[in-house]
Design goal:
69% of the residues lie in helices and 0% in strands. The protein has 5 helices and no strands. The protein is elongated.
Length: 138
């Protein structure tokens, strides 16, 4: 593909060169991520910049479609919210913290019950130690 203003000279833009190099590496069996990282090393750019350039050209060529960012407003209002979706990171973290707190409270209750049971068993054992010599005398 020729960039704006460069078609007459046949000179490819940096974006097109990036795309062509990525295609070449991927056809050679390299994954997209590895190809982007290799090109980033070669050009001194970030892998994110390389990836953005690749997909810009690929979308123009119709090779990939842009993912929808979100549902239309009417679809959002009509569709029930899926569990775990639609919450921000803070809300999800708060819910996770609440869940963790509830589990800790439950564990504390169970530990208190176990401690009470252990004390009761210790009392039973102490009574048994008192009764046992009396039974052995008969």
């Amino acid at each position: 593909m020729a960039a704006r203003g460069k078609a007459a000279t046949g000179e490819a833009s940096a974006t097109e060169r990036t795309y062509q190099r990525a295609v070449e590496l991927m056809r050679g069996g390299m994954s997209g991520k590895a190809a982007f990282e290799r090109i980033a090393e070669e050009t001194g750019e970030s892998a994110g910049t390389v990836q953005a350039r690749y997909y810009r050209v690929a979308r123009k060529a119709g090779e990939v479609k842009r993912r929808p960012r979100s549902k239309p407003a009417t679809a959002k209002a009509a569709a029930p919210a899926a569990r775990g979706r639609g919450r921000g990171r803070r809300a999800a973290a708060a819910a996770s913290a609440d869940s963790l707190a509830a589990k800790l409270e439950q564990a504390a209750r169970l530990l208190q019950e176990a401690a009470a049971d252990a004390r009761a068993l210790e009392g039973d054992a102490q009574r048994w130690r008192q009764i046992r010599p009396l039974l052995d005398q008969r």
